[in-house]
Amino acid sequence: MKNIFLSILAATLPTILYADTNPQFIGEDFSGRPCVGSIGSYGPFDYTKRVNYPKELYLVESAHFTTNVETLVKGSTSSLPYGDLAYTLRAWPNHHRALNSISRYHLKFKRIGKSIPISAECWFQRAINYSPNDATTYMLYGMYLHNSKKLKQADANYQTALRLDPDNIQSHYNYGLLLVAQKKFSEAKKHAEIAYAQSYPLQGLRNKLKAAGQWPNK
Length: 218
Hints:
218 residues; mainly alpha; 56% helix; 0% strand
């Protein structure tokens, strides 16, 4: 009942625009179709400035970005998670966790031969157009592109992420994984050393480099 009430309340709130950028959909999806879709009536809000909008973030997340939605178990206001993810991203175009969820949702549907109404790459392009200096969005897009076998595009997005935030060890780690996939082992090792020097917990990159004979077996 609480989620239903919050969803109705969110839908009836007046449009709140505080940024100069109107977050339209731009570009094309991987099949060459133009990215089109409704931009919504609530927001937009920049996720990198979410500390300034705690009530607005709570309103959207409580109604639409629940744990079940984020983990793709089920929707909050509908049976499937997509509608709630779309609502969240319309209001918060660069919501990092929602972008990560929509990318996993797209890949999940793609594996079973289905599609979603607006592809993940369209949501990412809209997010970047809205907040072009958000390093985390570029990193997440790089991860999605890597998983979609778009390695050159992934490489470009990781480089942009690290240019904007050179100290982000998660970007170093994930870029290292991409470089291993491209067999650029010396470059991958450099990024791995940066990540592990700061105690990055995941061992996948180290293990891949060990398997390729590019990391000491200590």
